[in-house]
Design a protein that fits this description.
By secondary structure, this protein is of the alpha/beta class. It has two domains: 171 residues, Cobalamin-binding domain (Rossmann fold, 3-Layer(aba) Sandwich), CATH 3.40.50.280; 295 residues, tm_1862 like domain (pyruvate-formate lyase- activating enzyme, Alpha-Beta Horseshoe). Helices cover 42% and strands 18% of the residues. The chain has 19 helices and 18 strands. 43% of the residues are buried.
């Protein structure tokens, strides 16, 4: 038997690509867990990314770490003296920080239970549990598993048959893949917003995507999962390759709570697929209008273009939408259909983008280049297509094999991965594999050149939107803007020097 009275849930420090904003948003993973666990335990949340946002460390490979120092985190653990520490590892680049924090916890008290969750541990449980300071991994929905695990630990009962956990026993790692999922998401309480430093997020004001119309914003997720099979994505796999939704009433009630209690004026819908169920999405937007909820909103995690139409767009605008992130990925139809496996017809994208712009809704888009089988000419078509759309802004990234993605399986099977490949050092401006079509250096040079040309061209193609987007960021985040400009200039100079060497 082991008493578990006090629980500390930690969102670890984060990493970001040099020259880009250091986003900082409320971590919904530990907020949901905290809401579930606080019914029977004393729970504290520590967002180490938010509380140490100005603390920077150069990690090399074009990446910076930001967040509380290890000493500060150790002090917080020592002050609270928790019986259990839970950490989320949303990105593989956070795993070194998670590992170190677990080591610190065990150094302070070897009896402290350590549990980690998130995409990286879920897909690489054997590798993660090589670290002896980590006791358990929760696979996918920790809200479903963690209460049962704690109950058995406190009663001294065996937990070996629990669904969705991995653990080590007698030096051997055991993994129970998740087979059951929460069918009714309305059963979950709202995230424990009151346990998070909400004032810090408005003060820092760099949400996912980097831009907001108001300092008082909050992310919410109205659904889990996606039915698409894009090879670069691991999220659909993480959520069981199925789509589950919260009810319209449940979503609207949370928005009302955020407005009334936390003075939120902007919502970020962070679903993987907000409008897959189009009628449900319409009901949410109608509900915002009918209840007189005066909010702005956007979709920094992307919007499903193949579900959009004119009626839905007009409803989005009427309910407060000011920006849509278009998950286009490639400007070449063959790459989209045969390589990425994304169910999107590019012929529809141009007309949809024009309709969005007519409604005065900003557009940001994601593009990914460098997939196995993709040619240099197809990559150039993507940049050409992006310019043709006259987007407000766009992000161009290099395809990288994430744990749990089909892309990783392909690269591994074909022997494309570099010898030094490591999930924990992935940088989406760098290539971690080489194909018969291009070398990593060639791919990086193409991407860097086109990215620079595209963003410079935005100033001339769409000056009003350019000023609205970037001037707003400079005004609300002057110090971070100087940092972005400084590191951006350094990155450009390095790119030019590297090109001269090749």
């Amino acid at each position: 038997m082991q008493a578990v009275e006090k629980i500390l849930l930690i969102y670890p420090p984060s990493t970001h690509i040099i020259g880009q904003p250091r986003d900082c948003a409320p971590p919904l993973g530990i907020a949901y867990l905290g809401a579930v666990l606080k019914k029977d335990h004393k729970v504290k949340l520590l967002d180490a990314t938010a509380e140490g946002h100005q603390n920077l460390e150069d990690l090399g490979n074009g990446m910076l770490k930001y967040g509380l120092t290890y000493q500060r985190i150790e002090d917080r653990i020592a002050d609270y003296s928790p019986d259990l520490i839970g950490l989320t590892c949303l990105y593989s680049s956070q795993m070194p920080f998670v590992r170190k924090i677990c080591q610190l916890a065990k150094k302070l008290n070897t009896n402290t239970i350590t549990i980690v969750g998130g995409t990286h541990p879920a897909f690489l449980p054997h590798e993660v549990l090589r670290e002896e300071s980590i006791d358990f991994i929760t696979i996918s929905e920790g809200e479903a598993t963690l209460p049962s695990l704690l109950e058995r630990l406190e009663r001294g009962q065996d937990y070996a048959d629990l669904d969705g956990i991995a653990f080590r026993r007698n030096g051997q790692v055991y993994v129970n893949p998740r087979t059951t999922y929460i069918e009714d998401l309305d059963e979950l309480p709202f995230p424990a917003w009151e346990l998070l430093p909400m004032e810090e997020y408005s003060k820092i004001n760099i949400p996912m995507g980097g831009i907001s119309k108001s300092r008082y914003w909050a992310p919410i997720i109205t659904s889990r999962g996606c039915t698409a099979k894009c090879i670069f994505c691991s999220s659909a796999n993480f959520w069981g390759n199925r789509y589950r939704t919260r009810s319209v009433e449940n979503v609207l009630s949370e928005i009302e709570l955020l407005i009334s209690k936390y003075k939120i004026k902007e919502i970020q819908f962070c679903d993987d697929n907000l409008i897959l169920d189009k009628e449900r999405a319409k009901d949410i937007f109608h509900g915002i209008i009918d209840r007189g909820l005066k909010i702005f909103w956007n979709t920094p995690n992307g919007i499903t273009l193949w579900r959009l139409d004119e009626e839905l767009l007009e409803l989005m605008k009427a309910s407060g939408c000011y920006e849509l992130d278009l998950a286009i990925e490639s400007g070449d139809q063959e790459v989209l259909s045969k390589i990425i496996k994304k169910p999107l017809n590019l012929a529809q994208v141009e007309s949809l983008t024009k309709s969005i712009h007519k409604l005065k809704i900003r557009t940001h888009s994601f593009f990914i280049v460098g997939f196995p089988g993709e040619t240099k000419e197809q990559i150039r078509r993507t940049f050409s297509f992006a310019r043709k759309l006259r987007l407000t802004s766009a992000g161009f990234y290099i395809a990288n094999p994430l744990p749990g993605s089909k892309l990783y399986e392909i690269c591994k099977e074909r022997g494309y991965l570099k010898e030094e490949f490591d999930f924990e050092t992935i940088n989406f401006n760098k290539s971690n594999y080489e194909t018969p079509e291009f070398t990593s250096r060639e791919l990086e040079n193409i991407r860097d050149k086109e990215y620079f040309i595209f963003n410079l061209g935005l100033l001339f193609r769409n000056p009003i939107f350019f000023v609205q987007r970037y001037l707003l960021f400079v005004i609300t985040n002057p110090l971070t803007s100087l940092e972005v400009i400084k590191y951006g200039i350094i990155a450009i100079l390095k790119t030019l020097l590297n090109r001269r060497k090749t």
